[in-house]
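Page 42, continued from yesterday. The earlier attempt failed because a stray header line got pasted into the input along with the sequence. Redoing it now with the clean sequence only.
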Amino acid sequence: MTDNGIRVRGASLVTHDAAAELSPTARRILAAARRVLGREGFKGLTLEAIAAEAGENKASIRYHFGNKAGLVGALADSVVHDENIRLLRELSKASPDHDRVDILIAQHLRVVTNLRQYRLFFDLFPNLIRDPSLWPRMAELFDWYRELDIYALEPEADDELRERLRLLTALTVAVCDGLAMQYAADQTFDVEPVLQYWAGLIRHALEQARDGAGVPAGDGP
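This time it went through. Structure tokens are written below.
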């Protein structure tokens, strides 16, 4: 942990809002884009609609984000940013005797059942993967998910253990995205027992990963 963030893969992940690094005008445009997306869906997310919502012109959007793809990429980042930072903060406050799997699962439960956030992402994602210029940004976003979960489970993992955990965290991301889709379609679907079942599988897989990497049983969090 540093004064302003948590070190993952040797890089400091700051805990302030990434949007705060944008200019006030860019933040206003990004916030307007989120409102338009939530209200109109992706079809309504035009530069004209965003400009009108933000009280700016299209030239200003292009100046701050390059083009619509740049704005959509920033929008995808902003949709998932807050919950990721929340997990980092919870982990930074956890004492050594806290069950880090419990913290991770509680965070995923919050994310999966946050329909407002997930509906924005579901609206964005099919369009993001149709634009090859945004594939690297999306790949980076999913890599961030996986690395965050690795940090949640084993903050001091060496390279060998990290590679083993990468398989587990890739599955965790897939499980949680799939559960979010089911919950979005049917809010009577009880997500919590499914995630608790997954937590048991994570603990078993984590023990096997530690054994395979030669980590003594008492060395994990």
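Notes: The first strand starts at residue 5 and ends at 8.
Reminder to self: strip header lines before submitting.
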